[in-house]
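So, is this right?
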Amino acid sequence: MRSAGRRGGTGPAWGVLLVLMVEALGLALNWRLCRRLLRPLLQDWLQRRRRGRRLLEQPAPLRVLVLLPMNLVNASCAPSPTPQRRYAIARMALVPRFAVMVLAGAIGAEAVKGDLGPWTLAMRR
């Protein structure tokens, strides 16, 4: 039996690569939009709160950025002085999750088609 990748389909490896490229683009766009749009809107509100002032003054530690859900990280990095490099490293910690999701989708698609290719067999063992 042949895999989807050899028949001209994209296959799971290309799917993972595509997801990673789009994720990197999304991170860059999100960073710029949050910094330019969200930061000015939140600064006054955060300045009036003790924890908010701390967020405005201190960059978020990398371990916190890796552990928090993506939406909280985006919202907390916009007003804080967190460097873009630290933000990008933390978001790249999501790469394994995206890869597993893409591979699971590819295996599901192969199973539905009845085409048990090498990816499906490798994931079963």
Remarks:
- Residues 1-8 have pLDDT under 50 and may be disordered.
